[in-house]
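thought: fold this chain, then report.
action: predict
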Amino acid sequence: MSLNDTPSGERTHIGFFGVRNAGKSSLVNAVTGQDLAVVSDVAGTTTDPVRKAMELLPLGPVVIIDTPGIDDEGELGEERVRRTRRVLRQCDIAVLVSDATRGLGEAERELLDLFAERSIPHVIALNKSDLSRNAKAPVPDGTTCLATSALTGEGVFELKELLAHIASQHAPQKRLVADLLDEGDVAVLVMPIDASAPKGRLILPQQMVVRDILDSHATCLVCQPEELANTLGSLVRPPRIVITDSQAFAQVAPVVPHDITLTSFSILMARYKGSLEPFVRGAAALASVTDDSRVLISEGCTHHRQCEDIGTVKIPALLRRHSGADPHLSFTSGGDFPDDLSVYDLVIHCGACMLNDREVAHRVGQARAAGVPIVNYGMAIAAMNGILPRTLEAFPEIAELLETTD
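observation:
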């Protein structure tokens, strides 16, 4: 996978924020070396967040987000401000672009408070420094500032270097599956190819698992569910782990001997995104679903719905069969995730492979704040097939947690 192929969820998200006409879009264009955003002397030219996935040296693959002015006015302005604030939940790094000729205003200080409140690493770019050599406006202690000029290029190189340094300091050290394997181990991957499988390619979690296994110098064998028994029987020694698409749990689990670790791509993604524990807790709520329950089924990406779509068809059918009830179901996808979850009794979320860690943490945090259980597809399917404890054996650190939620 090349840098240009790096999925959005694996890229550093950098948001540029500020008031109208501070030069955010001009600075974004200078940093990216592209005409990414429309610029004008008229305040409020940027009306919606503009995103661009790209390679930004020396950082590597990033998503750059240019946002509307946080001080926008009127009914439409309030909606733009709301969308700007929503961008914060995705940002790994924030850049506050301030007009050096004016100094920091109240709206900008509120932004700095939001960065601090959400623990977002940030830097202040005192832009238009070519117009003011007295650009040292008072800033909060400990905040890094740079004088920049989108017009002359002053400070742009230094800003990119600083962003790369911040990104390296805060980059999480995590593995998807390699830490469960030793060099020379064999992992069997079960990947159903059905009507919902993308033509000519693998879905992202499958690609990521294959790459992580190869990086660990282990071996992976790939098969479909109906080929699993023959695949296992052909091996001289048993595999270290079998990883399956969650939708095939019912077909795969009886075939895999109990002395072989079994889990799913979705469960591995939950651990990778840091949400394994809350999802395990949320799985217990599946047993309490009734006709009156309000269940939100949410996907982090948008895609063409197939007739056997997992989110809108397979999971609802399994949920009704498991609970014996007909709950009220709601569906969202992409960035359309409700701000208020208190109206729901349960959230069932996808594996979130297209969302970055901060967005996943935000959604889990929203559910926690609302007192609403949240579980992902993989754990929900495992729980409703009665095999969740088995699929979590690879993670002994949560064994006690699972017992307390039974």
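thought: worth noting. The chain has three domains: 3-170, 178-267, 274-405.
final: tokens above.
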